Amino acid sequence: MTTASTPTQGTSKARVGVQRFGTFLSGMIMPNIPALIAWGIFTAFFIDVGWTPNADLATIVGPFIHYLLPLIIAYTGGNIVYGVRGGVVATIGTMGAIAGSDLLVANFNAALPEGDAPLGQVHMFIGAMIMAPLAAYTMKWLDSLWEGKIKAGFEMLVNMFSAGIWGFVMAIIGFYPIAWLVNGIMQALGNAVGWLVETNLLPLTSILIEPAKVFFLNNAINHGVLTPLGIAESADTGQGSILFLLEANPGPGVGLLLAFTFFGIGAARASAPGAAVIQFFGGIHEVYFPYALMKPMLILALIAGGMTGVTTNMLLGGALRAPAAPGSIIAVVAQVANNSYVAVLLSVVLAATVTFLISWIILRASRKRDLEAMAATDDAFGAAITQTEAAKGKSSDALAGLRGGAATQADGGIEPATMTEKQIKNIVFACDAGMGSSAMGASVLRNKIKKAGIEDVTVVNKAIAALDPSADLVITQNQLTDRARQKTPDAVHVSVDNFMNSPRYDEVVDLVRSQHEDRS
User: What is the SS3 assignment for 250?
Assistant: First the structure.
């Protein structure tokens, strides 16, 4: 039922902490994905092995990745922590890290014996992600020391010089310890990835990646770890990187959703086809996470599908030249490197097929038990519909329509008046990055409220980290509700399993409508 949700007993603080950290990492990368896409387009067209080589325009590629991308990532991260002031200081510090890294590389190459391969540039993506919070938080702390103690008329002078001086200090820190640290980290990670590729063990990364995705760490993994490594590899080799496909391959997710489409039961089966379209073409992977969480054994199917996709790309040379964001098949095809379309598309198809087959086995093995469990709950109507279809030997549009109604009844409504006395005027859908699943959910609810004739209620989507006290009601997927509640403890919090078509939306609309009727 839709209520002002209470804290979940036994919620893992570690999980919430990891999610929050991952959100911060992805929050620095996600807003800058358009810049990464632009860099990928320049690379695709103008480098010497591009579609239309152009030596003049190709000169943009190097500075773009070496300077622009790390600096805007640093600015974004600093801005998250401490607004424009934090962003500026973080950018200054990151420029020091870039220069320090270049000096270290130059000194290393100068000492190499003649004939040895020189070390390539280290692009400071991880350096920016370290420097941004360090510079912004320390600037914020320094400002707090003299807050309220500056004489009138001197505020601008103190603000400008304090930020400039601290930016200078952070640039020195970036030039020496940060540059040294990040060069070492990138060297170690690059060697680790190289070892995994050489020993044909890269598919084993799916054992970590696929379960982590289901627990909403997908953006942290993709944009916090794999994207920096993939960009470095792509820039060094000019041949793209397989790392961009480890998390973004839409095959496992669509395979799982297709299995629910044909072999699921109840509301999960009814909603799976729409979810498959959104996941595969829209690139919003979060829509399939609830399906896996309702039957954790299905994570094994996702792992197997992920490993199949990675293996296919390893054997056939599939790679992307830049991140595919969002993880849509359209974005994946647009970023294919080296004309490896057959390898990449085959990796998607095979990953989906393997996931589908294993999911089918798991769903069929537990079907009888699942039907009994569904019949024992409030979704008895949904169970009856499914049993009717089974007896009939085929489905029908009429029964499918009834199942949609059953899904709404199954989650059960309550009288809106018992939900909260808080006046609802600002509804916020919040997800990890504030761009994918929450945008979809906000669009669905916005249309419902418009059709209900309600005009003075706003529905927006945000990242959880961007929530503020202006939110009257916050809707999140249930795995993320605890984090949202920490940001907005005074708001009404509504947990949903699926942003696409949750019956919770109708209850929220009923609540808002009843409040309007009471006022009138």
Answer: coil
The residues carrying an active-site annotation are: 431
Task: Please check whether residue 247 is in contact with residue 459, taking contact to mean a CB–CB distance below 8 angstroms.
Answer: no
Burial class (CB in 10 A: 0-12, 13-18, 19+), 117: exposed
What's the mean pLDDT in 396-421? 43
- The Cα 230–Cα 247 span in angstroms is 12
Average pLDDT of span 396-422: 44
The least confident of 69-73, 229-233, 426-430 is 229-233
DSSP state of 151: P
pTM for the model stands at: 0.70
H-only helix segments in 366-495: 367-375, 380-392, 397-411, 437-451, 481-487
Determine the Cα–Cα distance for residues 37 and 30; give it in Å rounded to an integer: 11
Q: What are the two backbone dihedrals, phi and then psi, of residue 42, each rounded to the nearest 5 degrees? A: -55, -45
- Two tokens at 326? 């969002």
Are residues 44 and 58 in contact, defined by beta-carbon separation less than 8 angstroms?
no
Exposure pattern of 30-47 as b/e (b: 16+ CB <10 Å)? bbbbeebbebbebbbebb
The dihedrals phi and psi of 335, each to the nearest 5 degrees, come to -105, 10
- Residue 404: pLDDT above 60? no
- Residue 69 CA to residue 32 CA, distance in Å, equals 8
**One-letter amino acid of 6:** T
For helices 380-392 and 367-375, give the axis angle rounded to 10 degrees.
140
Residue 86 token pair: 């934090």
Query: Which range (76-90, 108-122, 151-165, 420-434) has the least confidence?
Result: 420-434
Query: 82 vs 66, 133, 267, CA distance in Å?
Result: 25, 9, 44
How crowded is residue 518: how many other Cβ atoms within 10 Å of its Cβ? 9
Share of the chain above pLDDT 90, in %: 36
Which residues are within 8 A (CB) of 357 and not within 5 positions of it... i.e. 6 or more apart?
Answer: none
